[in-house]
Every structure is written in C-alpha cells, then in structure tokens.
Amino acid sequence: MIDDLAQHRVDKTGYALGTTINLTTFGTIDDSGVNEAFNLIENYEDLLTVNRSHSEVMAINHAAGVEAVQVSNSTYELVKTAIKYSRQDFGFNTTIGPLVKLWKIGFVGANVPSDDDIKERMKLISPEDVELNDNNLTVFLKKPGMELDLGGIAKGYIADRIRDLWRSMGIASGIIDLGGNVLLVGNSPTHSDKRWIVGVQDPTSDRGETIGNVQIGECSAVTTGIYERYLEINGKKYHHVIDPRTGYPLKTDLAGVTVFVKNSIEGELEAKRLFFAGGPIPDWGVGNDDLYGAVLIYKDGSFTAIDVNVI
Fold first, then answer.
1. What pLDDT, on the 0 to 100 scale, is given for residue 234?
2. Is 179 within the bounds of a domain?
3. Of 25, 99, 160, 206, which one has the fewest beta carbons inside 10 Å?
4. What local confidence, expressed as pLDDT, does residue 6 receive?
5. Does 77 fall in a domain?
6. 121 and 168 inside one domain
7. Same domain, 98 and 222
C-alpha cells in the first residue's frame, strides 16, 4: 500500500555544485521546500567553491602564506572538519587543491603533468600547515601556493543542511540527490515497509545501470568512484581521484564504493576511507551506529557487500 504522502510530491531539478541536482519532497504540493533548498545550495556554493575567483574558501587560498582570513561559522566548521580528517592520512586531504589544479581532470585543460611539476606541488599538500583559530574563526595556510579544496566533503555537508532545513519546515519525507550523494529523508512513502530502495551503480555500465538494489531505512548513500571523470591519452585512462600521498591518480582494483550512513558528510569521508584502502577494512563500522553498511565494486565487475544485502 502506498502512503498518502506519496500522493502529493514536488520535484525540482537544476544544475549546481558541478552536477545535476534532483530534489523531491513528499506530502505537500507546496514547492517552498525544494525552492528554499536550491537557495541554500546556491548560498553554500558561493561560500565554498574553488571553481570561481571569489568565495570564502578562495579568499583563504589567495591569502596563503600572507595572512589568516576570517570566514563565516559554517565555512570555518567545514574547514575544521576537513582538516581533522585530512590529518588522519587515509587518503582524503583537503589541501590537495594544487594537485587538482595541476591535473585539471574533468575540466578544460586536463593534462598529464610532468614528474617535476607533481613533486613541486606535493610540497604544498600539508594539512599540518593549516592554522585554525576557533575564537576568531580564521584560517591560515602557512605556505604560499597552498590551496584548500572542499570538493570531497562539501556535498555531504550541504545535503545534511538541506535535511535540517526540511525538518524545520515540517517536511517529513524527501529525496536529496546531489549527484553521487543521495540523502533519503524520513520513511519511504512509496513502499509498505517504509524502506527505501537504493540502486547501486554498476561502474562498468552507463549511469542508471545497477548491480542490484539495497533496501534500507532513512540514510545517506554516498558513492566514490573512478568511472565518470577521467582523462584518456593514447588509450590510457587517468581518473580524477588523485592520491595526495603520491600526486598521481590512485592505483586501485576498485571502481566504486557506496556507503550507507546516517549523515551525508560522514558518508563522503567513509566512502573515501574504503576507496583509498582498496577493499574492506577490518572492523569498519564496529562501534559506530551511524555506519549502516557499504558495497565495494571492483573493476572486474565483482563486488563485496558489508552489512547490507544487494538484491
């Protein structure tokens, strides 16, 4: 039986954060929820983007080696979280900006840099050289040329903020799809068991082709993969997931990792933790009730499911 909420829904699609955004609210024909969410996305993109010359994060980057920059509370807290996890050295590194700008994979001018250029940029990849001041909400990059890039964490943060917004508006159920990052709010109104059905992308096929589905309650499903953005030269593919420890695209047998978690920002980080590990991590998720499970898909088409059933 389909919930009455499903009889009333609002859908809106747009382009932001470098991807196609799809938002759906259930239980209302009022479009204020999706409209306010797109306004929120636009505001956060203005603060956090590094793909324009002006933003709060770009102000930090422009002042590298010169002075600390005061930013808004939301930008500061996100940078602080990104630095905390970057210092764990599992692969995620928010100071990777100089390498991303060097390779430009997924952007105009993508190329394979020289070893010397990569070595020079590697000197700037150092989360230990970021100075944070909680009292003044300032961020200081100690070395000239350092650059923050929050692209590996910002979507998760923004998805969580949209969920907060919808809850404050009394929206009980909805879908936040930020492209590779899906946050399912509340119960599914279209299935009698109230669970959502999430398709796990088959990285060897076109977008929308899945290896199977996972039935799950309210959660965020976040994917890290190497199959959509890459540079191909002389038959060799260079994917966009740069390993900050080597300066080159990560060498891995994995094609994609999808994690199922409570909060989307944690999904961003844990998907990368598993992806950079190259496979399952012993005791991953043990003692953390916010981590529900994961599916790791390999280049040969095989997959491993952790604490979830793929049907």
1. 80
2. yes
3. 206
4. 61
5. yes
6. no
7. no
pTM of the model: 0.93
* Residue 25 shares a structural domain with residue 89: no
Three-class DSSP labels, the chain = CCCHHHHCEEEEEEEECCEEEEEEEECCCCCHHHHHHHHHHHHHHHHHCCCCCCCHHHHHHHCCCCCCEECCHHHHHHHHHHHHHHCCCCCCCCCCHHHHHHHCCCCCCCCCCCHHHHHHHHCCCCHHHEEEECCCCEEEECCCCCCCCCCCCHHHHHHHHHHHHHHHCCCCEEEEECCCEEEEECCCCCCCCCCEEEEEECCCCCCCCEEEEEEECCEEEEEEECCCCEEEECCEEEECCECCCCCCECCCCEEEEEEEECCHHHHHHHHHHHHHHCCCCCCCCCCCCCEEEEEEEECCCCEEEECCCCC
* pLDDT mean values, one per 10 residues, the chain (311 residues): 66 94 94 98 96 95 98 98 97 96 89 95 97 98 97 95 97 93 95 93 76 96 84 83 94 95 97 96 94 95 93 88
- On whether both 66 and 13 belong to a single domain, the answer is no
What pLDDT sits at residue 58?
A: 98
Specify the number of domains making up the chain.
Answer: 2
Tell me: do 58 and 118 sit in the same domain: yes
Which range of residues forms the domain containing residue 260? 4-42+159-306
Nearest to 31 by CA among 11, 14, 45, 47: 11
Q: What is the C-alpha separation between 190 and 244, in angstroms, rounded?
A: 43
Q: What's the confidence (pLDDT) of residue 1?
A: 41
CATH number of domain containing 99: 1.10.3980.10
